[in-house]
Write a structure and sequence with these properties.
about 90 residues; mainly alpha; 6 helices
Length: about 90
């Protein structure tokens, strides 16, 4: 994936340029980044490309940790837990 496609607004690039950026600020930027991906773009491919571009030179940066976390295996959706039905006797799992 091309870098321009992986980071269309340059949000991730700019996050690495901010001295003293916090984890919370990186999380906010990452949400904006995810919303700016082009329709049909593969987020995992984009994360992999961004890690290759920026993570190798800044392994301790908070954005690097978030990009890695984004590639971590996700839990498979299961039955919904909680909610009104689970609290009412005779309903829920």
């Amino acid at each position: 994936m091309e870098l321009q496609t992986a980071d269309p607004k340059g949000l991730i690039r700019e996050s690495y340029r901010i001295d003293g950026i916090t984890d919370a600020e990186c999380r906010s930027i990452l949400i904006d980044w995810a919303l700016s991906l082009p329709a049909g773009a593969d987020p995992d491919s984009a994360l992999t490309r961004l890690l290759a571009e920026y993570g190798a030179t800044a392994p301790d940066h908070p954005m690097t940790a978030l990009l890695r976390a984004g590639l971590a295996p996700r839990a498979v959706g299961g039955a919904r837990r909680g909610g009104r039905n689970a609290r009412i006797a005779g309903r829920g799992a």
